[in-house]
Amino acid sequence: MPSTIIGYARTSTLDQTYGLAAQIRDLQAAGCEKVFEEQVSSVDKGGRPELAKALEYAREGDVFVVTKLDRLARSMADLIKLKDALEAKGVTLKILNLNIDTSTPTGKLMMNLLGSIAEFEREIMLERQREGIASAKADGKYKGRAPTAQRQAEKVKELKAKGITADQIVKELGISRSSVFRILRDE
Fold first, then answer.
1. Between vectors from CA 55 to CA 84 and to CA 95, what angle results, nearest 5°?
2. Would you call 130 helix, strand, or coil by DSSP?
3. Residues 116-145: tens digit of each pLDDT
4. Strand duo 100-101 + 5-11: pairing
5. What is the full DSSP assignment across 7-68?
6. Phi and psi dihedrals of 182, rounded to 5?
7. Which long-range contacts (CB under 8 A, 24 or more apart) does 170-179 make?
8. Active-site residue numbers?
9. Neighbour order of strands in the sheet with 100-101
């Protein structure tokens, strides 16, 4: 079975119609036979349904093409996850504006370098965050966030005293059943 060149185009808002059209044009110029397109934010709670369809559609030997890295992934971690999913299916990834093609040794190297840099940046960020929290605690400025359910402990006790069941308390206050029982147990 011959391989298919699959394109994926995305813009964040409906106002970016020209950007979507330009991506589709570039994907078709790159030889994409099937193009999946959508206009959703990469952080949209509804996800990216066309990306999911494109990933499902991809078969071994296919090539998955995007015009720019930010059209595919929210972060480097997201990119690596998507790259690994494609790789597991035997699908190569091409990013046109970076001239990255994971079917080549150089393309694989570039993707691995990007992933390593992203992991390094994340570790540095977490280290700085831990140092900042430790410093703030030492200065007495950091107390942490009070657990959401604990903020409602008095209300839980009050409702229970009125004879309201745990399930009703859960529904009324929007906290978990285990939180209700933890608060009542600690009373």
1. 65
2. helix
3. 887 788 789 889 999 988 888 888 888 776
4. unpaired
5. EEEEESSTT-HHHHHHHHHHHHHTT-SEEEEEE--TT-TT--HHHHHHHHH--TT-EEEESS
6. -65, -45
7. 175/148, 175/149, 176/149, 179/147, 179/149
8. 12
9. 34-39, 5-11, 63-66, 92-95, 100-101
| Residue 187 burial (CB count, 10 A) | 10
> Residue 10 — pLDDT band, cuts 50, 70, 90?
very high
pLDDT tens sequence across 58-71: 999 999 999 988 88
d(CA 65, CA 37): 12
Say if residue 182 is exposed, middle or buried (CB neighbours under 10 Å; 0-12, 13-18, 19+).
middle
Scan for tokens 């001239």, then name that residue: 99
User: Position of tokens 């990119």?
Assistant: 79
Structure tokens at 136: 């703030």
Whether the model clears a pTM of 0.85, i.e. scores above it, the answer is no
Report the C-alpha gap between 125 and 173 in whole angstroms.
Answer: 35
